[in-house]
Design goal:
With 445 residues, the protein is mainly alpha-helical. It has two domains: 1-230, no CATH class; 241-445, no CATH class. It contains 14 helices and no strands. The chain has helices at residues 13-46, 50-86, 90-125, 130-144, 147-161, 167-190, 194-217, 232-266, 268-304, 308-341, 348-362, 365-380, 385-409, 413-441. The two termini are 33 Å apart.
């Protein structure tokens, strides 16, 4: 297991690139695994009923909001830990690992309490009918009350990755995802527990995952003692870093709800095509998510070690690798999207719309790569506000307005929707590039 990034060993561009790939490839595969398991999970639930699929999907949309908060804590933790390790300040790195774990526990318990008392209300706010609310509340309570284990899983994995070790979270995820699929089959199909079975399978895996990751953290140089005194200044710093990251995720989630509503106004077929296209394109996002983790870690460690030129180079190399990989995936998506669309529907009108959306999206892949990785690089440099601003302006000033103007006013349909997304992503990626360049070339202000 890699205990700490040894930046002084990566003194050439070739060595930096190799280090990025060694860390980035496992992170990419971990994200691919999560997406595949989600797909299989939905497949099993679909055997229960279409209402069950809808109920679980809406409940998971609420859980995704929880996860946005927990992920933000992980962003703050990994940024601080990488910088402290880069500065050879092991004491503060351990304190950050401890306090981020404590923050994960507290936030997980609070969200669990909210789930117990407000599950039905949250589902109604999402627009669910009473029949769906009844099913969704079963799933949401089983999965959401123990939200503690969601938060611990996300934060502890971020702590481990901050040391440069992406292999351990991948191994744990791979083994537990196999068990997850088996439990889905037993609980949903064999025992016929329906929606509750899907929820129990998920909870069992999250409990095992959080315990395993905690054990893994305690095997690294970041192992900490609970009885050690808390550093209130460090906790404040962690919350200060995490808050904009949480706001950025929430801005994105709320914005998605708004522009989904606009797409529904265009037509039911267009909305169905859009959602299917998003499910297909999700697989192309995985390199971006994985390399964002790499950028956060290497840039953070370089900033901590006062190696600003290295921080800039790691950001550039991580972005370049991701652009190449995601552009190749974009080309493949452009070619094979008619075939992929037929996995989901036989309706020729919907298939044509899916193909239109994905062929526009193929040209957006370089911008997606830049926006993901540069946001991670800025967060590694301790700047969580710039990604928040870019998401707010991009989502509300460009994407939502663009969907309304192009998709509805100009009657361009799904082509207008995805052109709005493309414009948002390219403007956002240019803005993030300018800010990252300023941050690393002019110093960490």
């Amino acid at each position: 297991m890699m205990e700490k990034l040894q930046l002084e060993h990566y003194n050439t561009r070739k060595k930096k690139l190799r280090a990025i790939l060694v860390m980035g490839i496992p992170a990419m595969f971990e994200n691919v695994l999560q997406t595949l398991v989600g797909f299989v999970d939905t497949l099993f639930v679909s055997k229960v009923s279409l209402d069950a699929v809808t109920a679980v999907s809406i409940a998971n949309a609420i859980i995704a909001i929880y996860m946005a908060i927990f992920m933000a804590i992980g962003v703050g933790a990994s940024s601080l830990i990488a910088r402290y390790l880069g500065a050879d300040n092991l004491v503060q790195a351990k304190q950050t690992a401890k306090q981020s774990t404590l923050l994960a526990i507290v936030s997980g318990i609070l969200f669990g309490i909210a789930t117990q008392f407000f599950a039905e209300n949250m589902l109604r706010v999402m627009g669910a009918s009473e029949a769906i609310v009844a099913l969704g509340a079963i799933y949401l309570r089983i999965v959401g009350i123990p939200a503690l284990f969601i938060s611990l899983t996300m934060v502890l994995a971020s702590v481990i990755r901050a040391t440069g070790n992406t292999t351990t979270p991948l191994k744990i995820s791979f083994l537990l995802n196999i068990v997850h699929i088996a439990l889905d089959y037993v609980f949903i199909i064999v025992l016929d527990w329906g929606v509750a079975g899907a929820a129990y399978a998920t909870v069992v895996i999250r409990i095992a995952n959080s315990l395993w990751l905690y054990y893994a953290v305690q095997k690294t140089l970041l192992r900490f003692q609970w009885q050690s005194p808390n550093d209130r200044t460090l906790m404040k710093q962690l919350i200060t870093l995490s808050t904009p990251a949480a706001a950025e995720r929430l801005i994105m989630r709320v914005g998605q709800v708004v522009y989904f509503g606009l797409i529904i106004k265009i037509g039911a077929d267009t909305y169905a095509a859009h959602m299917i296209a998003e499910n297909i394109e999700a697989f192309t996002f995985m390199p971006g998510y994985g390399m964002a983790v790499v950028a956060t870690t290497f840039v953070g460690a370089s900033i901590g070690a006062k190696r600003l030129n290295d921080a800039f180079e790691y950001g550039v190399l991580s972005t370049a690798v991701t652009i190449v990989v995601m552009s190749i995936l974009g080309v493949l998506m452009f070619i094979f999207c008619p075939w992929m669309a037929r996995w989901f529907t036989d309706d020729p009108v919907v298939i044509d719309q899916i193909v239109t959306a994905l062929r526009i999206d193929a040209f957006a892949q370089p911008a997606v790569a830049m926006s993901f990785v540069l946001a991670g690089a800025l967060q590694g440099a301790g700047d969580t506000k710039t990604p928040m601003y870019s998401t707010a302006v991009g989502m509300w000033g460009l994407r939502i307005v663009g969907v309304y103007v192009l998709g509805i006013m100009l009657d361009m349909g799904i082509a207008g929707v995805w052109l709005a997304l493309l414009i948002d992503l390219y403007v956002r990626s240019v803005f993030l590039w300018i800010q990252f360049r300023k941050k690393t070339l002019r110093g960490n202000e």
